Amino acid sequence: MRVSEVHAAESVAYLNRALVRLQDIWEEIGIPEEQRLQRTNDVHKHIKGLLDLMIAEEEELKKRLLKSIESCLKELNHLSSELQLPPFEEEDGCTMLQIEKNSRTRLEVMKEHKRQRMEELKSLICKDRELCDIMCTTPFCIDHDSVPSLQQLESYHAYLKDLTKEKERRHDEFVSVKKEIGTCMEDLERQAETSFEMDVMCEDEEAFCLSNDNIAALKLLLSQLHEQKAENELRCSALRIKMQELWERLQIPQEEREALSEHMVKSKKRDIEALQVEVQRLEVLKMQSMRSVIEAIRAEIALFWERCFYSQEQQQAFVSYHSDDFTEETLEVHEAEVKVLKKYYEDHRELFEGVTKWQENWTLYLELDKKANDPARFNNRGGNLLREEKQRADLQKSLPKLEKVLKAQIDLWEQENGAEFQVNGQKFLEFVQQQWANHHAEKEKEKLERQMKKSKQTQEDMLYGTARTPSKRRIAGTPTPGKIRKLNGTTTISTPNSFLSSGLGGTMCQSSIQKPPLSASKGLGLRTPGHGRTPRALDRNKENISHLNRHTPSATLRETSQRLLNRM
């Protein structure tokens, strides 16, 4: 039993005891029944009124509790809807007071959530406005009056994070481009003129609006400045080239050239003005020394003719080259020709350099090949012979490869230009083939000459017995040259050339010459055959030689050599 119920039972018992005590008192006093009844009614009314009042108060408390619960639940449902949270549900088995307390507590928590979300939204909106003012962008689309959901706040945070990164990127780009613009303006020696340029060059970088249009205009301004700078550089480059050409043609002293050295690097306005003044001065000098200038241009034209492999006919086509009329018109014609040649050479530089390389390698190959046939090369020291042979072999391999590459380049050039590529008035490939053919023909000619010379020398040796210069070393058992031995009344003269190697047995044979008559020896002495000898002595010598040839193996060799000579 509850304590409240015990107290209620005790109250009822006490009320009963009190009524009984009142009855006893009334009885003792002797109050009549009518007054007792009246007094009892008064007690009843008093007790009833007190209880009714208490009941009314409690009923009122109950109503307030119900009203509070209803109000809390209603507000909770509204906040749940605003905060996009699930609705509040009452717990089963709770008393009215517990429900009211729980509802009020839950309501306070949800009100705090709402307040925090609204403050966070307000902060995000403020930051968004700042970024929008700087970048001229559209604010984030969100209701400023309603309570945002957690997803909306997260999206807003992500949006502002990306926007902040974009702002930092644009600011870095702005700072970088601004620096480049400042450098270009400094190089161009100009100041900010338009309001936009003034905003760009303003010291307060945060004041510049980082909108897409402004960034695009910033890049456009930078590109325009770059174009102006490039134009100035091209202008200065052209003036410098022109000035260099005039310096060379007019042979300007180095001291005068160095006076303009400070204007030969940069391309500022004062540099352009200084170069223009110098070019104008040189133009005046050029007109005053027309002949020397034209001759200098002709030397340059001749150099390009050589580089471009112009034939004699192509050179003769430029008639003004041989003109003696040194006028301004002649100068203009020569300058135009130089420009054409320069452009022609630059357009086909790679091809011309390849042909030049081939010619240099070809010349070196011919020199090395000529040295290879020189007997004196065996007397060198220091390994030059081995190096030259290796270099010649490398060139012999690399020349065809280079010719193949040049052929492909020339074919492409002829397809693009619709004309034949010529070297000295001849197609390059025909020129190469002709060079190889001439080289082979020259080698065949030299080979034939050596064979003829060797055959002639062999014939003379066999015919007249001419002795060659003996080597320092003699074959073992060979008699000393010039030693005479008497055998059976005949004189034998031994010479190095009198020994022939036998093809079968490998034995050595001596050729013998009969001793001439004593009278002939005393009268004529020992003489070279064919010089100062009498016809009779010559006839005798011929008989001895023919007799000798019939009995020696050299006769066969001489007959073979004679047949070879007859065929040649």
Short description:
The chain is mostly helical and 568 residues long. The protein has helices at 3-29, 33-82, 96-135, 150-188, 195-200, 212-250, 254-258, 269-288, 290-307, 312-316, 328-347, 349-372, 384-417, 428-464, 518-524, 535-550, 554-567; strands spanning 422-423, 426-427, 484-487, 490-493, 499-501, 508-510.
| Helical content band | over 70%
Decide which structural class fits the backbone: mainly alpha
Globular, elongated, flat, extended or rod-shaped: what is the shape?
A: elongated
DSSP strand content: under 5%
Using the CA coordinates, give the radius of gyration: 64 Å
Spatial order of the strands forming the largest sheet: 1-2
How many strand segments?
Answer: 6
Count of DSSP H/I helices: 17
Can you describe this structure?
The structure is a single chain. By secondary structure, this protein is mainly α. It has 17 helices and six strands. A two-stranded antiparallel ribbon has the order 1-2. A two-stranded antiparallel ribbon has the order 3-4. A two-stranded antiparallel ribbon has the order 5-6.
What is the topological layout?
Elements lengths: L2 H27 L3 H50 L13 H40 L14 H39 L6 H6 L11 H39 L3 H5 L10 H20 L1 H18 L4 H5 L11 H20 L1 H24 L11 H34 L4 E2 L2 E2 H37 L19 E4 L2 E4 L5 E3 L6 E3 L7 H7 L10 H16 L3 H14 L1
Antiparallel strand pairs: 1-2, 3-4, 5-6
Helix pairs in contact: 2-3, 3-4, 4-6, 6-8, 6-9, 9-11, 12-13, 14-17
